[in-house]
Every structure is written in C-alpha cells, then in structure tokens.
Amino acid sequence: MAQPESLAELLNGRRAAVDASLPAVGFGGGWLAFGESIWGGAVSAVVVAIGLSVWRLRKGDKPRAVLIGLFVVCVAALIALHTGRAEDFFLLQLLSNGASALAWIISIVMRWPLLGVVVGTVLGQRTRWRRDPVLLKAYSRGSWVWVVQYVIRLAVFVPLYQAGQIAALATARVALSGPLVAACLAVSWWVIRRNLPADHPGLRHPVTGDEPAPTAS
Predict the structure, then answer these.
(1) Which of 4, 6, 10, 190 lies 20 to 30 Å from 145, alpha-carbon distance?
(2) Going along the chain, which residue ranges are E strands?
(3) Phi/psi class of residue 93: alpha, beta or left (left: φ > 0; alpha: ψ in -120 to 50)?
(4) d(Cα 5, Cα 14) in Å, to the nearest integer?
(5) Is 7 helix (H, G, I), strand (E, B) or coil?
(6) Is residue 14 part of a domain?
C-alpha cells in the first residue's frame, strides 16, 4: 500500500490542539497572577488568543478559521464573567467534548464515520471513500479511537470542573490537547492501516468498482 502520509500530516491536528490549549493556559495564568481574578484570567486569555490569531494570519492561515477560534475564546471568557465562576471558562470545552463524542458515535452507527468524512474532504474525494467497503470499515474502526479521546477528556475535566480546580483544568487542557491528539492520530492511523489489506492502494485511492484500482507503487 503506497501511502506515505500519516493522519497527523493530512489533518494537521497537532498544531490545532496546541492553538486550542494556549488561551486556557493564559486564563489559568492570569487568574493566578491577579489574585484569582476572573477578569485577570479573561483578559489574559483574550490577549493570548488575539496574539495567536495575528500570528496565524501572518502565517497565511484562513481568516475564517482564525476568527472562529478567537470568537470561541471570547465567548468562554464572557461566560465566566457573567456567571462569576472561573471554572465556567472551561464550560464550552466540556460541552463540545460531550457533543463531539455523541456525534462521532452517531456517525459510526449511521455508517458515515466522521474520520472518513474529514479525511475524504481533505483529500477532495467527497463521498467516494464510502463506496469502498474496506475503507468504510477502516474509517469506522478508526473513528472509535476518537470517541475514546473525548471520553477520556470528559472523565478528567468533569470532576475538576465540579471541584472548581482552575489551575488543574488549565493544566489538563494542555496535557489532553497536544499529547492526546497526537496519540489519537497515531493510534487511529494504526487502526486504519491494520484494516487495509496489503494490496489496497491507500486512502487517496478508494476502490469503488467504478474504475480499476490503481497499481501500488
């Protein structure tokens, strides 16, 4: 199977995970530095997010994606300021992880595994990958790894959130962002490869029956 890229290379997930964790670090650091002040944490998080957004725009990232990330941080900060509970800065994260776990499970059950949807979109295949039974099965099994990722996060974040452990939440955000995403990408890639026969041409070449399968180089 001629397939040099890994999922990490295709999806660029590690960078996205690092970007998502930095504003949380800013919030935790500002909260501590200003005497457990929610305003201090909120301002610090937004400043970090703005700096990160400017840097990403200068690196050529799409403005829409950058602004969405900045918007999410601003909303998280506003939630914490409105409720007066510092831990509520992480509420959106908890809700998004729960919703993501549910969405990935539903996608697998409906035979539209999100891993296949995402990779297929990145590779410009639209839905061709679904007409390859082998790829469909591989993506379905690989998607379960992503479900486990979200469940792990919830298992760690929910008790910390309930206990109001702000510094621990910020630390966990870092530990369960970059490292966990990297592990998830590596394991799901391993699962996919384990489920593809040696003669399968790879993710870029779904065997749909509409045309002869490309010869592996």
Answers:
(1) 4
(2) none
(3) alpha
(4) 15
(5) helix
(6) yes
